[in-house]
Amino acid sequence: MTTVNPAPPPRRRARVPLAPYLFILPYLLIFATFWAWPIVSSFLMSFKDSRLGAAAGYGVSNWQRLLTDEFFRTALKNTVIILVIQVPLMLTLATTLAVALNSRLLRARGLFRFAFFAPLVVGTVAYSAVFRLLFNGEFGIVNRALAGLGLPEVDWLNQPAPAMAVIILAMTWRWTGYNAIILLAGLQGIPEDVYEAAAIDGATPWQQFWKMTLPLLRPTLLFCVVLSVIGTLQLFTEPALITNSGPGNATMTLGTYLYQQGFRSFNFGYASAIAYAVAALAAVFSFAQLRLFGRDS
Amino acid sequence: MTAVKPAPAARPMRSKAARDRASATWLHLALIPLALLFLAPLWMMLVFSTHPETAIFSPNPPLWFGGAFKENFDGLQADTNFLRALGNSTVISVAYTLLSMLLTSLAGFAFAKYNFPGRNILFGLILATLTIPTFVTIIPQFILVARDLKMSNTYWAVILPTLANTIGIFYMRQAFQTVPDDLLAAARIDGASEVRIFWQIALPVVRPALAALAILLFLASWNDYLWPLIVLTQKDSYTMPVALGTLVGLTRVSWGGIMVGTAIATVPFLALFLALQRHFVAGIAGGAVKD
Question: Where are the transmembrane segments (chain B) (predicted)?
Fold first, then answer.
């Protein structure tokens, strides 16, 4: 690097202009090769028809196909349904849990934390298998419990809406604890005396939660919302392993459709277009979230 | 666990203590069933790994351990060469975690503690990609790794592309910002090199954050399914999740085998997490989400 250091800072920092660049270099090389370039490359690829025998030139055929593709529309619809139900459900539960876990009245906090974090430790393949067992129509424990309660049994994995419910439950089971731990860390960053002052002023716990905890927790919540939304937009493992995108295509997501187009049909151009549609959605959602509750972060 | 906090001095009357006791009871009554619900699939996995399939699917599924662990394990090993997959997973996850910690903490340190031309642009660029789904890169990554670099079925194929860990850099930068500048300046005056300042002074200070990051990185790598599934095509190169995935996909699913495999893959983590969980929350608090 031959860049001249402009206006040397007053301290002795000017002595070592090379060090930070060298520190960043290894990461940057990986970042450029395996992230930055692929992001560009996949954009270019989305304009190429990569099917066998197709002309090699650039065009908008993939994007045109996307607009009229029934399967894409189904995948998009399913993904958005899961997103709209699962993320709020999970984050409400996670926030409630975090507040409970942070309570000074709670005994054996370590044990509870462990219980709620434990699902994350179980691999995706493993918990998918467990959920397939739990919700099996013939011998699943869930149906046995329903029967025991005198309720009708449900053929969970072979009907569209129940299959969707299983996916949502599985994701909630797996990721609630993770978000709760992040939110718990956020809660612990809120100084105790804020609450003491409020209590002296006569604020009820309920008021304290809505008027103080939630606003102070906003940056952390935003972090969780953005990551959860992006994660859900790319949902792959659960529908692939629990329901196999079925019944029919009832639980096919943008993730499983992209996998099918890219790595089953090896239609890289079209898969890239799908990927960019996901990215566009992620950008829209992130932007909306930042506008809605961002402000200071 | 931790000592009960003394109630604020002057104000509280007996009624407050009574109210607290009632709330505490309700809190536990609500949390215990929920905690059991969260633990149930894990428990089932452990229990089922020790029973033959006939027991798993019997009208009264077992709730306690049985004696078929060895039998299930042998079936699993025969179906998938599970030990090989476990070995692959271990090498990949350990290498990935160490390399990723090194790369992200080096870069995070530079972003947190140096003022250099281009810093904000570079960091902004890296941060901006945080909201780009990994899906966007997966196809070019595959072409690069499999076709151009011809690395299919190697450890590097799994490790290299995932090293560009944006969250890690964000996280380590936050952690290093808590290291006092004076500490580094003092070392500099004593003539320590920048590498030494990073390695021997700054890094030890952020050890809790590093530990938390290590757990998250290791977990992510250990449980990663999609990317290894794409770049590993030969049975001998499979990681543990890919090997188990081949069992789930079959029409004749070998449940006992899957449960054994997942139990073996899970138990070390449960132990690790139990041992480190206190530091883990503290580490997250000190790193990722300090706004």
Answer: 91-112, 121-143, 155-176, 197-222, 253-276
* pLDDT band of A83, cuts 50, 70, 90: very high
Cα(A108)–Cα(B200) distance, rounded to whole angstroms?
36
- The structure's pTM equals 0.81
CA angle at B205 for the pair B179 and B105, rounded to the nearest 5°: 80
What values do phi and psi take at A58, rounded to 5? -90, 150
- Residue in chain B nearest A3 by alpha carbon: B117
For chain A positions 48-67, those within 8 Å of chain B (CB to CB) are none
The confidence score (pLDDT) of residue B282 equals 63
B residues 71-100 near A, CB within 8 Å?
none
Residue A167 has a pLDDT of: 93
pLDDT in tens, A177-216: 889 988 888 888 787 787 778 878 888 878 888 888 888 8
Of the candidates A20, A113, A139, the beta carbon closest to that of B110 is on A20
> What pLDDT is attached to residue B290?
36
Task: Please indicate whether, in this complex, the C-beta atoms of A100 and B27 are within 8 angstroms of each other.
Answer: yes
DSSP-assigned letter for residue B254 = -
- Rounded to two decimals, the ipTM of the complex is 0.79
Report, as an integer, the average pLDDT of B119-130: 86
Residue in B51, B79, B131, B160 to test binding to A, most A beta-carbons within 10 Å? B131
Query: What torsion, rounded to 10 degrees, do the Cα atoms B25, B29, B35, B36 define?
Result: 140
B244:A118 CB<8 A: no
pLDDT at B7 over 60: no
DSSP H helices, chain B, are 14-48, 53-56, 69-80, 82-113, 119-128, 135-142, 155-162, 166-177, 181-189, 194-196, 203-205, 207-223, 226-231, 240-249, 255-286
CA distance A85 to chain B (A): 20
